[in-house]
Structures
1.
Amino acid sequence: MHRKACLQTRWRWHGPRASFRFWANKGVSMKNQTGDFMNDPYLPWADLAFRDNPYPWYERLQREAPVYRISEREFVVSKYSDYVEFAKHPAMSMEEPNWVKPHPWHVFKESVLFYDPPRQTLLRRHFNKWFTPKMVAEWAKHTKALVSDALDNIAQDGIVEAHHTICVVPTHVTMCRIFDIPEDDIEGVIENGLRIVMAQSPASTKAQLDDAVEGFKYLFDRCNAFVAEKRRNPGNGLADALIEAQARGELSEAEVVQAMVNFFFSGAPNPAYVLASTLEHFTREPELFDLYKADRESRQAMINEFLRLYPPEMSFTRYNKAAVTIRGTVIPENSVIRFMTAAVNRDPDVFEDPNTFDHTRSMRESQMLSFGIGTHSCAGQLISRVEIEVILSAIAERYSRVELAGSPAVQHDDRIRNYLTLPLRFS
């Protein structure tokens, strides 16, 4: 049996490997009352066993402290019903109170990651028209061609490092084509994207925060160069549309660049993590791959269930502009509330046998929340779903079996899930 290598220490790039996603968690350090990241009974953020498999801790949290007060102004919500009601509550905001310390993610201050409506709504309108079902169907043609090329180039023994080759490259290049920007240095984009997201944990170290600064420098330098080139040589992509919106006075220069950085680094990680998790799951339960191959009608339901089990982003934070009461706990104004997406996706009050794959769940049980909820839900969720289906279906059309060809390597923290490598054998 292959053991999964779990790399929790500071990571350095050694080849084509990585994955992640894009909601900001921003400068919040959620220590418990004693400032201990390791020994909190419910959420030991820095504990390696917790990071590898947090679900036993989540189960206890939901039973004993569904609204958990970590400190005077830091709270955690872990039950499905509370998440659905309060994550989109009018009091919830992306705008930080003044007690939040400076953080590398403040480079996104003029983006949907920090804006509330109405500015957030106006900015998203510029993206949404590029991700309609009709447009996504066109972008998916690129994904299909890219994954087909990748599968064509697999050696005769069927062995491939699937995370980068099958999961990352087709999805990243598709996003580059949406923006009409260069597709080069994919490894650099993924490396530096990983550096910035590893600074989102409540237990991120100073070294990780410093790494994030360097990662952001790379990403912003690339996107500033893209904008400069677009001004000299316009094209027909989303990048051009944003620049044109700036020329009309609808967006600022900072909003254009920050939006580009956000999509540029995040175009691959979300679908790539779900894809890699699904492919590895197929190695454990090959009958599910058989079902995916044979039953086209079940594919959407199966993907939905894999999304429930394997959210790339485990949680997100909001700040309440007014006091709220959840399950009798009064949360004072200007607190930070962490909504535990991964926990609510396995809430036993909603999902029977929540740790088990079951694509035949009822409509109520199939309402997973991996893309968030409300006005700040993931802008790329439709294209992510379609890319996942296109890539899995391309594999299913060619192969009858998916097996591990080595030990997967992952880099997880309490908030983000990442594969570094996934060696597979297709046959």
2.
Amino acid sequence: MTLLHIATEEGTVKIVRFFLNSLKGHETILQSLVEATTYYYEETALYLAAAGGYLDVVQCLVKHGADVNVESNFGSALHYAAQRNKWDVVQWLVEHGKANIEATDNYGRAVLHWAAQENKWEVVQWLVEHGKANVEARDIDGRTVLHWAAQKNKWDVVKWLVEHGKANVEATDNYGQTVLHWAAQKNKWDVIKWLVEHGKANVGATDIDGRTVLHWAAQKNKWDVVKWLVEHGKANIEATYNYGQTVLHSAARWGNLDVVQWLVEHGADVNVKSDNGETVLHSAARWGNLDVVQWLVEDRKANVEATNNDGQTVLHWAARGNLDIVQWLVEHKKANVEATDKLGQTVLGWAAQKNKWDVVKWLVEDGKANVEATDNYRMTVLHWAAKYKKWNVVKWLVEHGKANVEATDNYGQTVLHWAARSNLDIVQWLVEHKKANVEATDKLGQTVLGWAAQKNKWDVVKWLVEDGKANVEATDNYRMTVLHWAAKYKKWNVVKWLVEHGKANVEATDNYGQTVLHWAARGNLDIVQWLVKHKKANVEATDNDGQTVLHWAAKEEKWDVVKWLMEHEKANVEATDNDGMTVLHWVAKEKKWDVVKWLWYIALMLMLLTLMARLHYFS
């Protein structure tokens, strides 16, 4: 900030005039001083003078060459004056400074937008009638001048814009919200009433989510607006927005008990369901509104055991985060703690998944919830807590809930299998403190280490091998090792670590005789290159069908692998499988003609090079 900025900000015109006059004859210096900006907001002295309403300073700066239309991060000098209600400065800048009245700030707002929110209607009138400002100008959110006047409760401005400026009452912003939507959200009572009664604003207009003005008023707890819209505006109390949410759902979700009570007393259906089957009680419980829950149940007998389309009760939703509602529903209304949804999930299961440790604790200790209950996949609560990395819940369920660490799901997977996919801390604790079986296998013979490798959990793989003493060479039902799986799923870091530190056998074969390289060739050139270059993996190894690594790369259309194997490792293009098929046969069979041509070219080149080498030898 220069001395000129400081003098301008204080409105001391004599000092400003002295600075500027003293630089006469030094036009370059004068211009640079006038155009200098503050470091952070990039404001010139003219901005500060306009914001302060110092008209004489503004006039002096303009006289000495200050650019009226230069813009900072927040618009032009005209914006600064309009935002701060400096009407005389606005008028002078437009009439004498030739300021651009349609210039916009970083939010796309013109001077008229700011005038509508900050000034009297006379200012707006002057800008429109004398400055020819565009009444329908929109900011970056698509909001018009009328939108801003309405939400700032400038009733006189709203009235003038509609009656004299012919502003469009039904104009919508980028979110589909009309002027009336905004007035309702901001509880601008006078504006709402005038827009409906005189502006003929559409009470039933919906935004892009299908919300009516009444939905917004209910959500924002504008009880008097809700009442007036229904009684005088004839707003539809049963209107629904996306997914079938009614006005009552909105009020219940946002905990607006007064609005809920009024809506119900005036005909709103307590048991109405949204498209996904949620009742109003579900909404209230889900979002933690105990007073609404209590009133709906005790006063209106709302059904505590009502289920949504997924079979979830009110208690299922409450258990995801609202202990007070869980306690009240169970203790006072005998809500069923063991209720299951369509996937067999209990209330305790949902609390565990969402890491609601206080709810888990209470359900087990006071609600007597069954820790070993299983869902449709035979997964226990502990399985789910481990799957979703809920460390505190896992620990508490095992230590206090006595949950079975070795319980298996439908696929034979233990809690440790699930933990290995996601969280090292849980794996370590289960093994070190609860002696969880590191070598447990699921129904496909997969070990805990196998799952960690597939999911690229390198830290878990490392710990299981080094500290858990997991068997690197363990095979599943297909005789695939952990290394096979890591290569198959392109887990480059895991492959490298297993070979270098775990001493995994690169040439191990599965039931089909396929090596790790066979699997790597199906998808990852980096792994193929590393295995061949650093571990001397056999490029010509064949599986039970006689197919080489090159065969598999071609069959899976991994042309980068095919190309590298042929060009760098001289893989045998003429090698045949048990059916006498070469790589060229396979590619032709799949009608990959470009590749056929390329392979043929490479084969010819290799033959030519071999021939030349022989000729050279005999010469």
3.
Amino acid sequence: MDVSKVAEEMCRDEYFSYYLYKFLARKSLVSKSLREALEKAAEDEYRHYLFWRGIVGECSSKLLMLKVLFYVVMFYLFGLIVLLKHLESKEGDAAKIYKEVTGLRPDIKDVVEGIAIDEERHESVFLASIDESRVRYIGSITLGISDALVELTGIYTGSLGAFENTLSAGLAGFLAGVAASISMGIASYAQAKNEGRARPELAAFYTFLAYIAVALLLALPYFVISSLLVAFIVMLILAVAIVAYMTFYVAVLQSRSYLREFAEITLLIFGVSMLLYVIGSTLGNVLGVKI
């Protein structure tokens, strides 16, 4: 291991963390307790940065702002807890590096061990200070999204063989989505109440909201595109994008494999879609019905 290269990388990472924490602390969505924790963490990260810079000299990077922009987008798309959990997942590698560095440079062992302790404290304080409703009700949200994706992509795929215009297909899918979202919300409420969970009405609301949001997004191409095939392709692209978003969110929160989750749900959606396309085409030809 080249200690100078590792120190330079650590230097850049600490400055990035300082810059990111300062940015997050200024956001109005952040609670007072979390803002204080972020500001304290930013001070610690800047002190760590000065330590590593004292070893390697200047360590600025032209890609710093690009990296910050990436995490800012993640913050707005996924929320603070997913962002911090994602950063936390990278700290395991840093802990191994700290251990190797102290073995090669015993003279900085105490300082590096102090940095490692600071990093662990940041994680525990951050996660203890966060209270995001969408995280507490992630099961209800996932239920609504998953069910909507499977049912509605199936309906739209079946419409290729039963409908002649996009407006009819879009209305059929959206109305089915509205009815199903209400049904799913009621089912979610009953399930949460039977399980003795607090605020079952919120579980119902998040399930309903997730379902109706997916229903609206998947119906949108059919209302703005005249070609049934093109609208269907755009709908599938949106469905895959929603799957990618949902699986990344859950995978980060629960420390699961993102690619495996994404592949399983995507294959399920396409499998159901193909089956319903065959059924829709067969019924359309047998009954001679075209809407």
